Amino acid sequence: MTNDGTKPLTGKIAVVTGGGRGIGRAIAERLARMGATTIVCGRSQETLDAAAQAITSAGGQCEAVVCDVGRLSSVEALAARVDKTFGRTDILVNNAGVGDFSRALHQLAPDDWDRIVNTNLRGVFYTIRSFAPMMIKASHGDIINISSIASKNPLPNGAAYAASKWGLNGLSYSVAEELRRYDIRVSVVCPGSTQSELSPHPGKDSLKMLRPSDVAHVVAMLVTQAPQSFASEVVLRPTQKP
User: Fold this and answer.
1) Is it the case that residue 5 has pLDDT exceeding 70?
2) Topology of domain 13-236, per CATH?
3) Is the per-residue pLDDT at 202 higher than 80?
4) Rounded Cα distance, 195 and 11, in Å
5) Could you say which of 15, 85, 151, 223 is the most buried, measured as most Cβ atoms within 10 Å of its Cβ?
6) 228 to each of 89, 183, 184, how far by Cα in Å?
7) CB atoms within 10 A of CB 114
8) What is the pTM of this model?
9) Farthest-apart Cα atoms in the chain, separation
């Protein structure tokens, strides 16, 4: 709560890609509890509806919109809908991600490479291309890109995923320089081992792993920083190695 008793994100509009489950859902739930009207998007209407229902049942405001971030037309349609309905986007969280951790790079089919890079990297280009103009017009905004500790460390049998996340980091740092003159902050979050459906983490102790709520907590901190500052990168690690 702020000093006058209102929630810190009251009146804000937040878009969360991959918001139907896992880390994305936790982020959407956290932003909604802080007062933001949250739009969760992804490819499964059923999954999105379940997330939106849970958020609204808890007293938050949430809408579910099907969107494939790997298709520019789909992202542009989402941005047009948000602009028409709300006239603004204050927070964009690029969380949607896919991976393949079952084989070495030389065994990976080109279609699987395309699927991973199109979602994890090209999709962020599409969302920024579509939503940044709204933020520029308003002279403010927060863009949070969810990367991975795989953008820092080797990931055998996950080279395509790691490449997409290394690329996402470079994109984030550069876009931050392009947009900061409009008072738009761009940050990248690199979580370590997290309990999610994306990766099985074989041989690791799940009780020591990060939770999706831990990543959501970092996002909440980033979007409530004082206006004269921003953290360009957060590396989030479990306290104990899983």
Assistant:
1) no
2) Rossmann fold (3.40.50)
3) no
4) 31
5) 15
6) 20, 9, 11
7) 13
8) 0.95
9) 58
